[in-house]
């Protein structure tokens, strides 16, 4: 049921890793395939990272396959799920019989204990992120208008961007999942600059709104020995808790960031000074 498993890694595994090894360990690609639900599994915070692209017929979130004791139980038996529509067209997500229409950039928080989730709407592209949960929080649709955005960076520094906190305690309650959307202004290319590390949470970035002939150079690793992965539109990258995560595009773009771990405190991060980077 999981197309690929990403194992937890040690920072010392960075220095001698080839570019292909880095891509194999951290890059999550081909999540958005017409008529399919694609799920991958990361041992870091036990994130399920997936995509659902419905065609003429609706798609269903798969049920658990393993272990035998959980076979055919809901995937969300002990998990919560965040959904963001990154497609240009509105789509519908039905959660235990209740329908939610998600326009571009709308998100849905789906609580632990949910039995059935289906996706429909040709042209909608649903990005899926699930982590283990310990209690039930209300099912809720979240839009960019639900909270005052955070404006960061400047045009002069090529990092003028708007950060939308979609699933965080002041916008939408959750057990462990934090999720948001950041959009860069035309002419701005740097995200998360200056960069940071948060040892108590892992993070997943999904880059999108990027034309096929453009790329994002995503930087990761410890501050004094950064590496990079060159990413295309609609690819995700896993950032272990010990890693920087920042990028520069050959154009502007958007990205969904999602975190889970020890706390739900967005500001629990150590901001790095540029002189610490090597
Ligand atoms: O831990 C927080 C995340 O890395 C993002 O919110 C950073 C981001 O959107 C940005 O600065 O552009
Ligand atoms: Zn971060």
From TrEMBL:
<dbReference type="InterPro" id="IPR027449">
    <property type="entry name" value="KduI_N"/>
</dbReference>
<dbReference type="GO" id="GO:0008697">
    <property type="term" value="F:4-deoxy-L-threo-5-hexosulose-uronate ketol-isomerase activity"/>
</dbReference>
<dbReference type="GO" id="GO:0019698">
    <property type="term" value="P:D-galacturonate catabolic process"/>
</dbReference>
<dbReference type="InterPro" id="IPR021120">
    <property type="entry name" value="KduI/IolB_isomerase"/>
</dbReference>
<dbReference type="InterPro" id="IPR011051">
    <property type="entry name" value="RmlC_Cupin_sf"/>
</dbReference>
<feature type="binding site">
    <location>
        <position position="245"/>
    </location>
    <ligand>
        <name>Zn(2+)</name>
    </ligand>
</feature>
<keyword id="KW-0862">Zinc</keyword>
<keyword id="KW-0413">Isomerase</keyword>
<dbReference type="Pfam" id="PF04962">
    <property type="entry name" value="KduI"/>
</dbReference>
<dbReference type="InterPro" id="IPR014710">
    <property type="entry name" value="RmlC-like_jellyroll"/>
</dbReference>
<comment type="function">
    <text>Catalyzes the isomerization of 5-dehydro-4-deoxy-D-glucuronate to 3-deoxy-D-glycero-2,5-hexodiulosonate.</text>
</comment>
<comment type="similarity">
    <text>Belongs to the KduI family.</text>
</comment>
<dbReference type="GO" id="GO:0045490">
    <property type="term" value="P:pectin catabolic process"/>
</dbReference>
<dbReference type="GO" id="GO:0008270">
    <property type="term" value="F:zinc ion binding"/>
</dbReference>
<feature type="binding site">
    <location>
        <position position="198"/>
    </location>
    <ligand>
        <name>Zn(2+)</name>
    </ligand>
</feature>
<dbReference type="GO" id="GO:0042840">
    <property type="term" value="P:D-glucuronate catabolic process"/>
</dbReference>
<comment type="pathway">
    <text>Glycan metabolism; pectin degradation; 2-dehydro-3-deoxy-D-gluconate from pectin: step 4/5.</text>
</comment>
<dbReference type="InterPro" id="IPR007045">
    <property type="entry name" value="KduI"/>
</dbReference>
<keyword id="KW-0479">Metal-binding</keyword>
<feature type="binding site">
    <location>
        <position position="203"/>
    </location>
    <ligand>
        <name>Zn(2+)</name>
    </ligand>
</feature>
<protein>
    <recommendedName>
        <fullName>4-deoxy-L-threo-5-hexosulose-uronate ketol-isomerase</fullName>
        <ecNumber>5.3.1.17</ecNumber>
    </recommendedName>
</protein>
<feature type="binding site">
    <location>
        <position position="196"/>
    </location>
    <ligand>
        <name>Zn(2+)</name>
    </ligand>
</feature>
């Amino acid at each position: 049921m999981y197309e690929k498993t990403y194992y937890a890694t040690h920072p010392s595994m960075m220095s001698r890793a080839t570019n292909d090894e880095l891509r194999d360990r951290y890059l999550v690609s081909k999540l958005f395939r017409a008529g399919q639900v694609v799920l991958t599994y990361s041992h870091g915070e036990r994130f399920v990272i997936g995509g659902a692209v419905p065609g003429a017929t609706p798609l269903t979130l798969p049920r658990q396959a393993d272990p035998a004791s959980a076979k055919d139980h809901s995937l969300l038996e002990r998990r919560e799920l965040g959904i963001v529509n990154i497609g240009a067209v509105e789509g519908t997500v039905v959660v235990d019989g209740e329908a939610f229409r998600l326009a571009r950039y709308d998100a849905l928080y789906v609580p632990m204990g949910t039995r059935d989730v289906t996706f429909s709407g040709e042209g909608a592209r649903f990005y899926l992120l699930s982590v283990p949960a310990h209690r039930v929080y209300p099912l809720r649709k979240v839009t960019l208008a639900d909270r005052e955005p955070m404006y960061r960076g400047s045009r002069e520094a090529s990092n003028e961007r708007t950060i939308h906190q979609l699933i965080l305690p002041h916008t939408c309650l959750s057990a462990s999942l934090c999720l948001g959307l950041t959009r860069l202004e035309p002419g701005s290319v740097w995200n998360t600059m200056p960069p940071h590390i948060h040892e108590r949470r892992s993070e997943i970035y999904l880059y999108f709104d990027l034309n096929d002939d453009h790329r994002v150079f995503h930087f990761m690793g410890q501050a004094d020995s950064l590496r990079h992965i060159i990413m295309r539109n609609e690819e995700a990258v896993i950032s272990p808790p010990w890693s920087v995560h920042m990028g520069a595009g050959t154009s502007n773009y958007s990205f969904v960031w999602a975190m889970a771990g020890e706390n739900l405190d967005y500001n629990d991060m150590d901001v790095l000074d540029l002189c610490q980077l090597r």
